[in-house]
Write a sequence for this structure.
């Protein structure tokens, strides 16, 4: 049984108003051949009246044609199976015909539902103007480019990635420098769900590809931020449309074209929770060495005949986050050891001082990605500050001490940089952040010597080589860059003797699983009216459809107490933070519960729900740093709020041998009053919006 009616509409006039010549009209024969093969037979109908484009212009050419418009229409009847099998090819055929016939769009109607398929290049001249241009005397043919050595091409690749601002540069990267074939074809998207189309500013475009069929696809998002949700919806739809073919590589930009990234699609190794999208930031002028080194691994020059699965394997290896982690660890280890050796006159533990210095600088470098710190207009803050250093005092004493202890934090607990011209000249535009990381401690007493050579190693040797991102990866979204989670891996491999202390870094999927299992057990006890199946669907799949009392579940989540008695670098604390954030966000999306900003929600979870203890002061430092960075990433605005003090949230201590804080005594009203007073002061100290004297409060 033939269930569907398919019609392709062709104008007989060019969009300039002239009749179409026979050359472009040959596209009609191609369409007849394809529809005959796909659906078993066609008929051609010539009709008066034409049809209008979505903007109401006549599709047959001039705005006011002299003759009544005429269109050719190819009609076919298709079975359900044949239409399903060839629908995507039919849409691609419509785009190709619009290109060859130089039309604004070709209309395709299925069962009377008409859709318009635009030509690939909206700025291309019509066939008549193109023919006139080709008739002009041609210029001398371009001289062939001299062959480039591998090193020259790598330098050209890094320069192109550094200055990436347009799709032409993307084509240069893949076609000229990496050996891919040039492509230029709009991909069909009219059958997509409205939410997927709304995330893009224009149809996705095939811009390059391997000879074997591996595609490079460009996505221009509708927003000026690189929203992960919009990316995922578009990529999932394209992968679905390709129906088993290689997913390819995606080049994604924001609407303005000033933020770019590459996205690799990989199946979730666990197999159950969807595709893993691995992103590599490019075009920001910083950390291009990482992108250059990784992209060079997918160079097809000399191996153009590789099958598509092998090309995809090259891309999977190039986007391997573990490989970047290993490279970063090697470089971090080298820099850390040299800094520890060269610092002098340090009070106390040199190793702890070196780690604190690296943590402070790394935090500054991470949050500079948010655009909060600038020096003489440059957002590449530390590199710009280094270039503008006052050489006679040394960089640490001349700039960094003022940055740490006067600008980012100070005893006055306020932004001194706004009104102090001398301070502003030394450190540039810097917000007051508080947080404890930049509190001046005993090891910071003036007199320590940090050579410029050591700081050059950190700022230019370490930070200048790698991409940094404040976004922590999740099981289904990874970034091929140094993210705060890598600090935990560095702690496990470098700062501790793993076999001596028993410190092992737990992989993210295991952390996520254990956090979800703990939450399911907690909610079963706190919400006995909810079924186990409904709670499991809510926690595992973020599906609250079976939850009877959303308010009670939200109240339980807001009042949970999570304590990791051996928190290490904070893997479980960060894992639980992500799980609680996702669950509360899903209750808001489904039932409009918990209507607060993501920043306020995360701040509340850190202040009310999370606690950690560890014997190792290095681990405590890293765990606090990761929580601060996780909070900083959520703030949307020009001037960030001060960070919470975490001294009494993540503490150094012995969970096994320390005295029992409850002592097992009988109730003691005086002691309970002291505990209540202590808890109230801890809350005030941790609250970044509390305006009292925090140094005095800490001593109490």
């Amino acid at each position: 049984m033939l269930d569907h009616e398919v019609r392709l509409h062709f104008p007989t006039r060019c969009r300039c108003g002239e009749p179409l010549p026979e050359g472009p009209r040959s596209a009609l024969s191609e369409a007849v051949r394809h529809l005959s093969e796909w659906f078993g037979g066609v008929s051609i109908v010539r009709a008066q009246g034409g049809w209008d484009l979505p903007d109401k212009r006549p599709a047959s050419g001039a705005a006011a044609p002299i003759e009544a418009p005429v269109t050719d229409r190819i009609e076919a009847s298709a079975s359900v199976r044949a239409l399903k099998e060839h629908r995507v090819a039919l849409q691609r055929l419509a785009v190709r015909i619009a290109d060859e016939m130089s039309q604004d769009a070709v209309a395709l109607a299925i069962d009377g539902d008409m859709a318009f398929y635009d030509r690939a290049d909206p700025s291309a001249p019509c066939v008549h103007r193109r023919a006139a241009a080709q008739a002009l005397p041609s210029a001398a043919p371009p001289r062939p480019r001299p062959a480039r050595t591998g090193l020259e091409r790598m330098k050209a690749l890094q320069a192109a990635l550094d200055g990436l601002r347009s799709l032409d540069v993307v084509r240069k990267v893949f076609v000229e420098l990496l050996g891919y074939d040039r492509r230029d074809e709009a991909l069909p998207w009219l059958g997509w769900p409205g939410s997927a189309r709304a995330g893009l500013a224009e149809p996705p475009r095939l811009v390059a590809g391997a000879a074997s069929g591996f595609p490079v696809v460009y996505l221009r998002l509708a927003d000026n931020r690189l929203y992960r949700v919009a990316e995922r919806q578009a990529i999932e739809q394209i992968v679905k449309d390709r129906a088993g073919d290689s997913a390819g590589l995606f080049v994604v930009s924001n609407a303005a074209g000033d933020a770019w990234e590459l996205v690799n699609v990989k199946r979730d190794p666990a197999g159950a929770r969807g595709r893993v999208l691995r992103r590599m930031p490019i075009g920001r002028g910083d950390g291009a060495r990482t992108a250059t080194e990784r992209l060079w691994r997918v160079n097809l020059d000399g191996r153009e005949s590789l099958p598509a699965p092998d090309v995809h394997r090259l891309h999977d290896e190039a986007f391997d986050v573990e490989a970047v982690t290993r490279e970063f660890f090697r470089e971090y280890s080298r820099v850390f050891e040299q800094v520890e050796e060269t610092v002098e006159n340090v009070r106390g533990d040199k190793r702890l001082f070196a780690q604190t210095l690296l943590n402070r600088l790394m935090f500054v470098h991470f949050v500079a990605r948010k655009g909060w710190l600038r020096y003489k207009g440059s957002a590449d803050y530390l590199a710009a500050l280094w270039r503008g250093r006052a050489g006679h005092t040394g960089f640490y004493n001349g700039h960094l001490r003022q940055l740490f202890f006067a600008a980012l934090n100070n005893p006055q607990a306020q932004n001194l940089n706004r009104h102090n011209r001398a301070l502003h000249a030394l450190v540039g535009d810097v917000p007051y952040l508080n947080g404890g990381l930049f509190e001046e401690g005993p090891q910071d007493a003036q007199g320590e010597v940090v050579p410029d050579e050591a700081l050059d190693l950190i700022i230019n040797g370490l930070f200048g080589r790698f991409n940094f991102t404040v976004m922590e990866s999740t099981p289904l979204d990874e970034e091929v860059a140094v993210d705060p989670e890598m600090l935990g891996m560095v702690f496990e491999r470098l700062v501790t003797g793993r076999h001596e202390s028993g410190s092992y870094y737990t992989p993210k999927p295991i952390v996520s699983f254990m956090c979800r299992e703990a939450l399911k057990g907690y909610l079963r006890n706190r919400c006995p009216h909810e079924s186990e199946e409904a709670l499991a669907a809510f926690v595992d799949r973020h599906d609250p459809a079976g939850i009877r009392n959303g308010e009670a579940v939200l109240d339980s989540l807001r009042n949970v107490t999570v304590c990791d008695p051996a928190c290490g670098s904070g893997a479980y604390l960060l894992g639980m933070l992500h799980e609680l954030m996702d669950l509360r966000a899903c209750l808001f999306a489904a039932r409009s519960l918990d209507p607060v900003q993501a920043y306020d929600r995360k701040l509340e979870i850190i202040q009310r729900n999370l606690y950690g203890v560890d014997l190792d002061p290095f681990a405590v430092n890293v765990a606090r740093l990761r929580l601060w960075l996780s909070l900083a990433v959520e703030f949307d605005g020009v001037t960030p709020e001060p960070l919470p003090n975490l001294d009494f949230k993540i503490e150094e201590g012995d969970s096994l041998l320390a005295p029992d804080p409850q002592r097992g005594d009988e109730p003691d009203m005086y002691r309970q009053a002291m505990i209540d007073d202590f808890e109230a002061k801890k809350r005030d100290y941790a609250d970044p919006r509390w305006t009292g004297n925090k140094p005095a409060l800490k001593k109490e």
